[in-house]
Amino acid sequence: MLGVEEDDGMPQDAGESKEFTPSGDHQIKGHVEEPKSLRTQDDSQSLKDGRKPNKSRDHLIMGTNSSSIVSKRSVEKFYYAGEPEYLRYFVSTFKRRSPLINRGYWLRMMAIEQTIGRFLAEPSPKQKVLVNLGCGYDTLPWLCLGRRPELCGQATFVDVDYPALMQKKLAIIEKTEPLRCLLPNFSRTANPNGLLAHSDPYVAIGCDLYDLDLLDSILHEHLHIREGNATVMFVAEVSLAYMEKEASQQIIEWAANLPDSRFCLLEQHLPDGADHPFARTMLAHFEKLGTPLKAIGTMEEMRRRFIDAGWPERGVQIQSLWKLWSDPAYLTPEQRRSLDDVEPFDEWEEFALFGSHYFHLVAELTPPPRPPKDLKEQTSHLSLASHPSSSTPSKPAEQPLQAPMLPGKAVFRRYAAVVPATSEISEGEAVGLLGGLGTQERLTDCDTYARTEDLLPIQGPPMRTGLVCHTITRLGGTSNCIMAGGRTSPDKASAECWLRQDGLWRKVQSLPEGRYRHCAAPLRLPTDPRPAHTVLLFGGKTSNGHVLDEWLLWLGEEGWRHIPVVGDAPPARFGAAMITNAREGVSGVLIGGMTSSGRVLNDFWHWSLEPDLTLYCRNVTARALAVLRNNAGILGRFGAQLVRTNRGILMIGGICDGRMLTSQDEVLNMKTLRIHPMIGPRPLFIGTAITDVDGGLIVLGGGATCFSFGSHWNKPAILTDDPEASLRCGWQLLTTQAPATAAESPIHHPVVNGSGPRLPEPSQLPRRSLEAGIDFERICEDAKPVVFCDGDIGRCTRLWDVAYLKRMIGADRKVVVHSSSGERMDFAKKNFEYRTMEFGAFLDRCERGERLYLRSISQELPSEQPTNLADDYPEIAADFELPGELISVVESLHSSPLRISGPVRMWLHYDVMANVLCQVRGRKRVRLYPPADVNLLGFAPGASSSLIDVFEVGEGGRLRAALANTHPFEVDLHPGEILFIPPMWMHTVAPTDGISVAVNIFFRNLGPEFYAAGKDVYGNRDLAAYERGRRDVAKMTKWFEALPPDIARFYLERLGQELIAKGRTLASSSLHSLYAELS
C-alpha cells in the first residue's frame, strides 16, 4: 500500500473528532456502463517512467498498511463513540495504541475527513469523484456513505492501490454485509489488475501509481474525468512519499491538467532539516523498514512543487499538523478539550514534534476568494510565517552555542528534576538528577554527576513510586531543598512534598491538591531576625485534568498558603516557565504554558511578592513581542527551561504554538530578547533538566518518543560557546543511587531451625504493556528480562488446542521427543531418552500426564540448520504472529522452535542468544537468575547446562549455601504473554497447567562479529571471545606446569582474581541496582 507508514508499535498507540461526521441512510446516483476496453498491466513490463516493478519493495510498502490500519482502528473504537465502525472488518485483532499514537492518528484522520467533508458539501451541479491514491484499508467511502449519505448523492469514491492489496480488500468487502450493503450493484471483474470492482458509488482500481497511463485510462473511461463534467478530489495520505520525486511530480502535474480538480496531500516534511533528532529517528525508521521517504523536503519546497506543476499559487494552501491543531477553521477549543475525556494525555511535546513533521496541503485549480484583510489571520490557509524558514531575526543573534557531549556513560531519563549537592562543601562539584521516565518505567533513583570521584552520591527521598514532572527547589545558598508534586500517569498527580534538611529527607505538608507541570521558584523573604527561604508555586494540572491558576507559598510548619493576586491575574496554565529576577529575591517572570484546550500561551508576565503576602502581576507581553517582531512566536513556550547564566537568563527548548522551534531559535536570551543559534549536534531540548555550573550549563536527561518511529534519548552535554569545554570541565556520571531508605544492609543469611541458610524468595518479574509503547532495542541493551502482558501473538492462542494441532499438522507425522523418567529432565544424568513417535500419539500421552517434551528441529537438515516455524510447521505458522513492537526480533532471527510438553521440567540452562518465549497454551513457571550468579549455580566450565535442580534443594550443604547468595526472579507465564530472556540469564521452566504450547524465538542482539563462526543449530554456542579465551587459558596453564605446584596455584589464582575484577569492572551496573530495578 502507498498510504501508511507505521512500524507496528511504540511506547505507542490514535482517534478522531470531526466537523464532517456522516450518519444515516444514503442515496446515490447510478454509474456509467462498464467501459468497452479495460487495460491491465503486465508486471513484467516497465512502467511509464521506465521503472521496472520492484516486487520486494512494493511488498514492504504494502506491509506498512497492516500496522497503520491497526492504529486507525484504535482511533475508531475510542474516538468515534456511538458511530458505525468500519475499520473493524479490516483488523482481525484489536490493539489499543498509546495515547500519543492515538492522538496523532486522530489528527491525521480529522484533517483528511474535514477536507473531504467540505468538498462533498460544496454546492455543485457536477459529479464529484474522490480518488484515494494509495488507499490501503482506509474506509473513507463508508465513512461518507454510512454517516452522511445526504452529501454523497453526486459522489463516486475511487480506491487505488497495488493490485494484490486491493484484491484482499475487495475479498473482505464482498463477504462483509455492513460494507457491501452501502455499495449497490457491487460487482468484481476478473481482471488481475486495472479495474477490479465497481458499484454505483464505488470503484476499485489495482494499479501501481507509477503507471499513470493505466490510472488515467480507467478513470476517464469509467468516470469521464477529462470531459469537465466532474470535479475530482485526489487524496494522498503518506503515499506519494514513497515514490521517486520525478514520479510523484508527474502525478501532481497530471492532476493539475484535469479540467476541474483538487488535491489533498498529507505526508512528512523536515522543518529543521534531517539532523533534527526527531527527523533523524523518523528517517532511520523508514530506512530500516526498507521504505525510505524518497522526496522529503520542506513545506515551502512542496508548495513550490505544486505551483511548478500548474496549480495556481493562491490555490495552494499548506500548513503543518501542529499548526492545524490550533486552527479554529478545523478545531474549536471545546473539540480539543473533549479529547482528554477519551483517555488521559500528557505527551504534548512529542505530539507537537509529530505534528510539526507532517503537513496538510490542499490545492485547488479555482482558488477560493481572498478573505477580507482583517480575517487573514483567522484563515486555515497557509501562512508561511508559521514556517521557521520564513521567520527572520528582528535583531542580530547572540553568540552561537554548541552542545558537546560529556564523556562517560549515561542513564537515560527524561522529565526528571535537578537535586543540589548534599552539602555546601560539594556545591559546584556535584549535582543530582532525580526520578523521571526511564527506558522502561518511571524511576525512583537519582544520578549523581560530579567533576571528582570522591564525593558522596546524592539520594532522593523514599518515594513509593517513580515520578515525572515534579519540581525540586533549592532553599537559599544551603543544600536544603523541597520537592513538590509530580505524577505517575497523567490522571494520577501527586500532592506529596519532601524536604531535605541537613542531608536528610522527611515528608512535609502535602499540597492542597496533587499537581504536575507546575512552576516553582525560590524566594528570600526579608523577615526578622534573619531572612526566610521559601518556595513559590504556580499553576499545574490535577489528576482530573483541571488546569490551575493558583499561587502557593510554602511557610514551613504552617504548610502551603494560597497567595491572592493584585492587578491582572495570569490565566490558568500548566507547563509554563518561571524564574526569579535575581538568585535571591521576591520578584520574577512567568512565560508561556498551555491552556486546558491544548494551546500554547504566548504571553509574558512580571510578578512580585508584596510584604503583605499578596502577589502583584503585570502583563508585559506587548512590549516583549514588539521587541521580537517577526520572531514573536518563539516567546511563549510549553515545557521550556529558564536558567541563569553569565550571559543572563536563557530560555531553552520546549515547544511553541503552531510551529516548531529550530536550531536557530530554540535558545532565547531573556535579557536581550535575542536568539542564540545552535551549531553542530545538539540534544533534543524536551524533558531535559538544565542547571548552571560556574556560569556554564549542563544539560541532563531529556529526549522523546518519536511517534511510532522509535525513541531518542539525550546523552549529558554542556551548553557552551567553547567547543572544547566538555573535555576540560571534568563532569561525568558518578553513580546512580536508590532512594534513601533503599540502601543495602550488610548481607547475612538467617538460619531456619538449624537447617541451613534461608533461600531468597524469588522476585516477580515486571510486566510491561506493549500498548503503552516500548523501545525494544533499548530493552535489549538494558539486558533485563521483561514480561509483555498484552502482546497480540495471533489467533494461535485461540486455535491451538490438541484437536486443531492434530488436524493441521497431521496426527501421523513423526516427531522426535524427550521422554523423561523423572519430573525434571537432567541433562547431566541423561534421565531421558529421545523417542520417535507419531505427533497425535505424543499429544494424547501428554494429555494423560506422561513426561514428554517436544522441542522442534529442522525437518530437512536437523543436524545442520536451525528450526523455523514457518518452514517446519507451515500448516500452523500463519496462526502465530509477533507484535510489531518486536520487529527487531524478526530482523535478527536465528530460529523459532515450537515447544510442546507435558508435566516435565526443563533443566537449568542459559542461552547465548537473546530470545522471546511466547506462551500459547497452558501456563509455565519460569525461574531466572542474572548472569552474575553463574558461579553459584553448578555450571561446569564451557557448559551451558547446570547440574542442579533449583526447585528441589536439600536442607543443608554447600549447594544450599551457594543458592542463598543468588538473586532469583520468577514469573507465572500465561497464554498470550511474551517473556524476553536476555543472553546468559539462566532459567528453568516448569509447566503448571496441563499441556504447555509455546513458540520460542531466538535472535542475534549483538553484531555478527561477536558470534563464533560455524554451525550453531540450537543457538547456545558460546560467543567467539569466550571460545578464544578458553583456548588461551589452556595455553596459559602450560606456562606454569614446570613450577612447583604451590607456586603455580598461587599465580594462577592471582590471574583468576584479575579476570574476576576485570569482569566486574566491565559490568554496566551493579548487582544491587539490577536487583532493585527488577524488584
Q: Which labels suit this protein?
A:
1079 residues, alpha+beta, Rossmann fold, Neuraminidase, Jelly Rolls, 4 domains, nine-stranded mixed β-sheet, 22% strand, disordered C terminus
Explain how this protein is built.
This protein is an alpha+beta fold and 1079 residues long. The protein has four domains: 312 residues, Vaccinia Virus protein VP39 (Rossmann fold), CATH 3.40.50; 323 residues, 6 Propeller (Neuraminidase), CATH 2.120.10.80; 244 residues, Cupin (Jelly Rolls, Sandwich), CATH 2.60.120; 52 residues. 23% of the residues lie in helices and 22% in strands. The strands form ten sheets. Strands 37, 38, 39, 40, 41, 42, 43, 44, 47 and 49 form a ten-stranded mixed sheet that branches.
Quick structural summary:
The protein has 1079 residues and is α+β, with helices and mostly antiparallel strands.
CATH architecture group name of the largest domain: 6 Propeller
What is the CATH homology-level superfamily of the largest domain? Answer: Kelch-type beta propeller
The major pleated sheet works out as: 10 strands, mixed
Per DSSP, what share of the residues sits in E-state strands of 2 or more residues?
Answer: 15-25%
What would you call the shape? globular
How large is the count of helical segments?
A: 25
Helix share bin: 10-25%
Estimate nothing, just give the exact number of structural domains.
Answer: 4
DSSP summary, beta strand count: 49
Name the average pLDDT.
86
CATH domain fold name of the largest domain:
Neuraminidase
CATH class of the largest domain: Mainly Beta
- Give the C-alpha Rg: 32 Å
End-to-end gap: 44 Å
Q: Structural class per helix/strand content? A: alpha+beta
Q: Low-confidence runs (pLDDT<50, min 5 residues)?
A: 1-46, 373-393, 741-754, 1068-1079
Pathway: tRNA modification; wybutosine-tRNA(Phe) biosynthesis
Family: Belongs to the methyltransferase superfamily. LCMT family.
InterPro entries: Cupin_8 (IPR041667), JmjC_dom (IPR003347), Kelch-typ_b-propeller (IPR015915), Ppm1/Ppm2/Tcmp (IPR007213), SAM-dependent_MTases_sf (IPR029063)
GO biological process, one term: tRNA methylation
